[in-house]
Give the backbone structure.
Amino acid sequence: MLALIVRRLAVGVLIVWLVSILVFLVTMLLPGDAAQTILGRQANPTALALLQKQMHLNDPAIVQYGRWLGDMVTGHWGKSLVSQDSVSSLVLTAAENTGLVMLVTTLIATPLALIVGVAGALRSEGALDHVLSVATLILVALPAFVIAVSLIFLLATTVTHVLPAASVIDPSASLLSQWKLLALPVLTLVLGVVSYPIRMIRASMVEVLQSDYILLARLHGLASPRVIIRHALPNAVATTIQATALNLIFLAGGVVVVETVFSYPGIGYTFVQAVSDRDIPVIQTLVVLLATFYVVVNLVADVLVILVTPRLRVDARKAADADEPVMLAYEPISS
């Protein structure tokens, strides 16, 4: 297991490093000049040249990248070109706001997907299963912004007005005290992410319920609830972990659209504003942090899946003894 973690961690570091190169090159190609952005269009040429020298903008690209990468690793992320606030404070504040939404969404979507997926599997090919199948297909087909606009129409404007249409957070107050502002973004994300895990868990449970050892347990007279809870349900744990990891990865990118629609000051909204304002330090920092988040989530999910799946633990041990990579499949189970 330790060998697997070290190997996957090394691959993750390599991926983040390649992402850092890519984002640095892309931001270098963006129109505009960082010093010009700070001083404004009417800046004095002498002052502009002096600031460019202070910011090392005239150095070769490789030198600029090395200095920027060193600052990124050591936590010196610079200042925003627009607000002149430290990038670390902007990013951490946005990360706290997004993290709360992602946490609440995950705490709602994961148990909901498990309950609905198991219920569909227990009523396989029945009326309930067909209804759930159609409903999840519809949700899969709907883009996040369509769900968001529909919820605003239903709950915040024309039909009813029980929730605010925009999530403009008061920074001086606690987020939990402003729960109404979180309701629509969370509900949008839950509806956007829950359908795929439902289908994964339902397909996994159907396969387990049709296996030989479940049939043997029933032939021995074990009660159906006991068979499901003690023998079938544990086999859905690995699928639930994979589904949760996929949800977290989707949420890290999906919040960009949702936060923009609701003007919620999280990572997605901050990223869109930074791109619009050509705020290069903020863009670079957010992209690298998101890439790091993807790598960490995948690594944690792989380890947890191996821990709860005896067959994968054996495969991991054999691969470590043979010094071979462990291949973990994240392919969706066909339903």
The chain has 15 helices and no strands. The chain has two domains: 2-74, 90-277.
